[in-house]
Amino acid sequence: MQSPASLDSTPDRSHSCHGYQRQVEFEAEAREFLTRGLVEGQRVLYVAPGDSGDFTRRLGMDGVFEEGARRGAVQVASLDETYSSGAVVDPEQQVRAYAAATEQALAAGFTGLRVAADATPLVRTPAQLDAFARYEHLVDRYMAAHPMSAMCAYDRTELGDGAVAQLACLHPRSSTGATPFHLHAHAPDWASAALDGELDLESRPLWSVALERADLPVADGEIVIDATGLAFVDHRGLLALADHAERRGVTVVLRTPLPHLSHVLQLLDVTGIRVEQVR
After folding, report:
1. Mean pLDDT, to the nearest integer, of 63-69?
2. How many angstroms separate the CA atoms of 49 and 27, rounded?
3. Higher pLDDT residue, 68 or 204?
4. Is the pLDDT of residue 8 over 70?
5. Bridge partners (DSSP) listed for residue 44
6. pTM of the predicted model, to two decimals?
7. CATH classification of 1-179, choosing from 3.40.50.880, 1.20.210.10, 3.30.1490.110, 3.40.50.300?
8. 240-276: per-residue pLDDT in tens?
9. End-to-end Cα, the chain, rounded Å
10. What is the 3-state secondary structure (H, E, C) of the chain?
């Protein structure tokens, strides 16, 4: 199976998902990610559970963070201090908060906002997971058009691979093997979203729920998906997409280099999907 856009195989994009097994793994990746942001003139924000006063020591960035904090380039926030236990985020409100933080960073003279966040406590229950996955796609739309970037991390040991996959598939990039596909907003202006990776039998349940949570924007009765990064899709993936199109009363347009999809749709007598061949 060809892996979709993984963290170590594609150019840098602004929104990535990391599934980790040990806290030190996340902290090492966060340190590198935030340091790069400081070098690029961004304001950086570290968000995690625990005592915010201990974050600098845990990241091993005492000197860097202390200097950055003095000039307003470094901020930290504790999830334990910000959210009540079991809190379910409001996706739209969460995006508005980060949009305001981005604007504040720009007004202060920084080139943008870069966030490293361990959001594990916010996705422990089914209701939390559903709301946060919807937020992940909404904030991805925001980041696709604004100078904000984020590294989102989740504890695979606590949440399980299935839960992490539900979040990873709504990012442009993720840890290798976290998800078989990515449905994300880092797409050309003519597209509602981009789709990378593979849609096979194993990914069918994940694909259906991702479509529901993404709630892709409609223009002139169509949802146009840039599927130039889609390496494979079986008939089940196409049927799930047709079901989604019927429920929303739209036509889904797939722009893809895959040569056989129009023929498959004809054989299945599927309506609601139009394939546009691209090179």
Report:
1. 79
2. 12
3. 204
4. no
5. 74, 114
6. 0.93
7. 3.40.50.300
8. 999 999 999 999 999 999 988 999 999 999 999 999 9
9. 22
10. CCCCCECCCCCCCCEEEEEECCHHHHHHHHHHHHHHHHHCCCEEEEEECCCHHHHHHHHCCHHHHHHHHHCCCEEEEEHHHHCCCCCCCCHHHHHHHHHHHHHHHHHCCCCCEEEEEECHHHCCCHHHHHHHHHHHHHHHHHHHHCCEEEEEEEEHHHHCHHHHHHHHCCCCEECCCCCCEEEECCCCCCCCEEEEEEECHHHHHHHHHHHHHHCCCCECCEEEEEEEEEEEECHHHHHHHHHHHHHHCCEEEEEECCCCHHHHHHHHCCCCEEEEECC
Residues whose CB is less than 8 angstroms from the CB of residue 137 and which lie 6 or more positions away in sequence, other chains included = 170, 183, 184, 185, 213, 214, 215
pLDDT band at 68 (very low <50, low <70, confident <90, very high): confident
Q: Name which of 5-14, 165-174, 207-216 the model is least confident about.
A: 5-14
Which residues of the chain are in CATH 3.30.750.24 domains? 187-279
The CATH H-level superfamily of 187-279 is STAS domain (3.30.750.24)
Q: 203: number of CA atoms within 13 Å, CB side?
A: 29
In this model, does residue 7 exceed pLDDT 80? no
Chain CA centroid to CA 14, Å:
9
Q: Is the pLDDT of residue 104 over 90?
A: yes
Q: Token match 């796609």: residue?
A: 137
Separation of alpha carbons 2 and 279, rounded Å: 19
CATH 3.40.50.300 residue ranges in the chain? 1-179
